[in-house]
Amino acid sequence: MNQNPRNRSLTAPELEGFAAELDAVRARAIATLGQRDADYIRGIVKAVRYTEIGGRVLLFASLPLAFAGLFWATWIAGVLMLALSKILENMELGHNVIHGQYDWMNDPHLNGKTYEWDIAGTSASWRKTHNFQHHTYTNVRGMDDDIGYGLLRIFPEQRWRPFFLLQPFIAVVFALLFEWGVAIQDLKLGRWWAGKTSNAQMRKAFKPVGKKMLRQVLKDYVVFPLLAGPFFLAVLAGNVVANLLRNLWTFTIIFCGHFTADAETFPKESIRNESRGHWYQRQLRGSSNLAGGRLLNVMSGNLSHQIEHHFYPDIPANRYAEMAPEVKAICARYGQHYNTGSLPKQFGQVIWRILRHAWPSRPPRVSAALQTQAG
User: Fold this and answer.
1) Domain coordinates of the chain in residue numbers?
2) pLDDT tens-digit map of 153-179
3) Is 304 in contact with 290 (CB distance < 8 Å)?
4) The model's pTM
5) Which residues pair with 140 in a beta bridge?
6) Which residues fall within 8 angstroms of residue 353, CB to CB, at 6 or more apart?
7) 139 CA to centre of own chain
8) 180-197 residue pLDDT tens
């Protein structure tokens, strides 16, 4: 790990105090959960539903309105509204509900263990690869599969191979098809291609994924276009573009939250005897926030506050904005860098990482690595 020089090393008592203060922020938030949080998420459910209906109606109406010269205006409006619905469902509704943020409501439609979202990947797979592996082993090399998603070399500590020369192109394709990459992430196709997973094992693992993929393809690319009758192609194209826009946005937000210039990765040894304070440090140093206001917060599923999300993944995400100033102040008191910046700035750093580490580079010298034991 190449530690950011803006992070001060903490003594064992300081680590304990750091964890206690951050735990207290969480406790205060939990103590005040209630009606406003329930109203918020139910408002998001309505927004998802009505923007989807509006988007699909506009797509259906685009060709009939062509005689009035309104085809492109109606079609584009339909695409944008449908994309908005898909983004809200993916980022602010599905992702946060699957984390169990609203289980306390006892609403069967908002249960983190049973909610199924509107993307090609299954929620069961996401709970394993994201909720468990990524949030438990955030940016730990060899344990967090989200580091480059098995396709990209984002950090110099990752071993370089000639394949990575193609990653600027691969990254663009991955961004456009992000939901499909997420869908197959847990299949570990590399192991299958290498003969480490049998065909029978792969068929068993692929079965639920294949069913979900088929359902999504039929819904967006067969059923709704067929319902449009003679306007099949206009609706099909609109659904394709809406899904591509959702994928691009999701890719951008997630990569900005994890792969900016100040983000760090860690060796497996760093989590040996990891204390609560060390865990908070690792989450902080592997995360990046986005500054942009309420609209960006909602559109990103509040992952504009990726630091707070990594600290408190089970707290309703609409609380992160009000928790952030207190979290930032605690980090400042303990000399820990709180990484935040505008979307253009953070995404520019992501692009730089993708381009730079496509080429061979030496891992940085390990300096003052994150403490692995208290005391």
Assistant:
1) 12-33+119-356
2) 999 999 999 999 999 999 999 999 999
3) yes
4) 0.93
5) 266
6) 154, 155, 259, 260, 261
7) 14
8) 999 999 998 888 988 889
